[in-house]
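re: ur question from earlier - yeah i can do the single chain one, its not a big deal. heres the input i used so u can compare w yours
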Amino acid sequence: MKMFKRLLLAMFVLLLMGAAFFVIISKKFTENYALAAPANVMIPKGTGLNRTAALLEQNGVVSDARWFMLYARLYGLAGKLKAGEYAFAGEVSLAAIADKLVGGEVIVRSLTIPEGKSLAEIKKIVSDNPYLEGEITIALKEGEILPETYHFTRGESRDSILKKARQAMKKELAAAFAERADNLPVQNEQELLTLASIVEKETGVAMERAKVASVFVNRLNLGMRLQTDPTVIYAVTNGQMNLGRPLYRKDLAYDSPYNTYIYAGLPPAPICSPGREALLAAAHPAQTKYLYFVADGITGGHRFAKTLSEHNANVALYRKARQ
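and the output i got, formated as tokens:
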């Protein structure tokens, strides 16, 4: 009988100790603690629990990797932690850290391709992004990348971003061409894209785009040469677009199918990647009789003219403003 009582007492003590241990570790798992500093932690693909815990400790997210490993094993999370880049800041707990990794709450980064960039410039933007991986291997054509902000997670390939941007342009261009104005002097999507690229490079003023487009459409309809400087710059720089100096008169005689001072009609291909608004302006130009425009030299906008004499007067105003 005494032995039985002792056994019961021992079992009771063990239960109490187990309960106390459970309370202690439960508190350890769930209690919040403040990080010394915000930390971003990259968990590569194929990383196991031990290495994941070590990375968290190395980056100051957990004080002891063994506590994180114990929590993950007790709750069966060892094979459920997802790879990716994670951000930790402020107060955290072991449980909250594990939940974030199981839920794959990775950092979503962004890359912006501005309107009017050439393919060479776009490739440099993508290549210079430190959070993307791999070389650019896909074949791309000028103008087929839609300027936009694209979201990605660290470790995605550079090709994947460009494929996404190419598909976005394909969709936008098809919609613009399908809804284009009647009697527009473009025969296919490629010509509309080329016209939009010139509009994009000629003005950064949103409210002018349709008016600028109307000038080029009017000239095309009359068989006039477009005589637009950005096409010459594209020709002279071989698509780099950064001339690094003013455009000289001799450049206007540069023999290239892109030189619209020499050759009539649209150039053979786009000279940059136009944005949605430029596509819309090219597809729906304003109804005007303008044939000329020149910068006003003051606001960043342009003065438009129907006749050469009006245009020459506007050029004189521009030169005066520049002085």
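The radius of gyration is 32 Å. not sure if urs matches, ping me
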